[in-house]
Amino acid sequence: MDLTEAIARFIALDTFDNVWFWAAVIVSWSVACQWLIGVPFDMLLRARRGSAQEMADLEALVDINVRRIMWFQRVAGAGFAGLTAFFLAGTALLAFGYRFEFAIGVFVLAGPLVAIAAMNLQLAMSLHQTPLRGQELVARLYRVRLWTQVAAAASLFMISVFGMAHNVSSSNFF
Prior knowledge:
Blueprint: H1 3-10, H2 19-34, E1 35-36, E2 39-40, H3 41-49, H4 52-97, H5 101-129, H6 134-170
Antiparallel strand pairs: 1-2
């Protein structure tokens, strides 16, 4: 095996039997479950159990991130939504119309992550209209985190099923 072949194997675009794809799946969902509208989960835990200062820090960070998300949504929201729809539609076409394996992997990973981003945007818009404080804020963030974890589990199951189906259909057992 020469150097070119080794590099090509290392960065191969095979998806479901490539360790890089599975690493990207794990990292993506870990980050999505760890951060809600830019607030790390450990800060949420400390505010729930801790002092008034930790609760004030959580409220301040939530306020900052809600304003930041609302600014981005106001300035570039429509354009970003259009680009996201174009990306997902193109990826879906490549994935299911042309059966391109890399596009299938990207679509089954990006689709649910876009849904989580929409859920975080909805949370930010809700907190912008009716700001919550104290334990009400913590309870709302916990509820969103729970649904994020449910979506992550469903997505991981779906990706695993796609991966197994692809690997079984593309292998020669006999």
